[in-house]
Specification:
The chain is 46% helix and 13% strand. It is built from 14 helices and eleven strands.
Length: 322
């Protein structure tokens, strides 16, 4: 029997508590239909018995943390709102999580539950996934953690994390397959209508550019790139616009945005192409020219690297008129 302890933190997302509970309980049902014994003991673990979420929901914890002396798997659900506040309100979980992992438990964070997991120190020097919209904040708060851009799932030494929003289902199915087998995981994926092998959240990401910094010159160039991305631009010319040497300009740009100038321009172009695919009936070549590319192979390679989909796959998936 595997004990699955799903945390019930304050400032958490109710679905990210209810969904793993539902999945592992249903897994016991699937096992029963195969003539096998149930494998999972599922419990909600809180710092207090009643936890109020969003001023609407109340969740009753089955056990308090000091009542749980051992467990096999800890699931940290997605948090909600200001991450610093959410982590602060739930810091009392941290020593318990560290103790359980020290005793051999595994731990998995769902979406931005990664902020609480990272606060335990268990991710230091390791890879981690989280919601794409929180990459920059996560990198700034936890510089010793290797954030995986676009990844749905990371696993390292019994510490797991998932990408944003509903992609946590992929981690839950991954864990289910690990603890049972492929057949049970496939049954669950069909029951819950989840694509079992999706491994990338890039197609859902929206690039907005990291402007939460105080470097005025770099912000000026960011805005210039976002409005002149169809033109032929060179790094030396951009540096001259803000009276900086090329070396100083490139260093400051990378420091402020997390991207090189070329990476930033590529992301801006791909974001423009995505909007074109979503809102027009233009073909691939027309969109490619619209965003300043003339090499079909180069455009296709870049687009797939950033979004995880080819241009035609993205158009077919998101075009309003498709």
């Amino acid at each position: 029997m595997k004990t699955v302890s799903i945390l019930v933190p304050e400032h958490s997302v109710m679905e990210a508590i209810a969904d793993p509970r539902y999945l592992f309980n249903m897994a016991n049902h699937f096992l029963a239909t195969m003539g096998k014994d149930p494998l999972f003991k599922v419990q909600l673990v809180g710092l207090k018995r009643e936890v109020h979420l969003d001023g609407v929901y109340t969740i009753h914890a089955d056990r308090l943390v000091d009542e749980v002396t051992d467990t096999d798997l800890i699931i940290i659900p997605a948090l909600f709102g200001d991450m610093q506040v959410a982590v602060s309100r739930n810091r009392a979980f941290i020593p318990w999580i560290r103790k359980q992992v020290g005793q051999g438990a595994e731990v998995a964070s769902l979406c931005v539950g990664a902020f609480l997991l990272a606060s335990t120190g268990l991710l230091d020097g390791k890879k981690c996934s989280t919601h794409w919209a929180y990459y920059q904040e996560f990198k700034e708060r936890f510089p010793d953690i290797d954030v995986q851009d676009g990844s749905i799932i990371t696993e390292e030494q019994g510490v797991y994390s998932s990408g944003g929003a509903n992609s946590y289902w992929n981690l839950l199915l991954y864990l289910l397959e690990k603890y049972t087998d492929r057949e049970v995981a496939i049954l669950a994926s069909k029951y819950f209508a989840i694509d079992i092998d999706r491994d990338n959240q890039n197609a859902f990401a929206i690039f907005t550019g990291q402007k939460d910094h105080n470097d005025v010159e770099i912000k000026t160039i960011q805005e210039y790139l976002e409005s002149h991305y169809t033109e032929k631009l060179s790094v030396p010319d951009l540096a001259r616009q803000v009276a900086l040497s090329r070396r100083s300009f490139e260093r400051r740009f990378k420091q402020a945005t997390g991207n090189t100038v070329l990476e930033y321009l590529q992301r801006v172009k791909v974001e423009a192409a995505k909007r074109d695919f979503e809102s027009s009936r233009k073909n691939i070549t027309e969109v490619m020219y619209d965003v300043g590319y003339s090499d079909t192979k180069a455009f296709r390679t870049l687009f797939k690297r950033i979004t995880g989909l080819t241009p035609i796959e993205y158009r077919n998936k998101y075009q309003k008129t498709a």
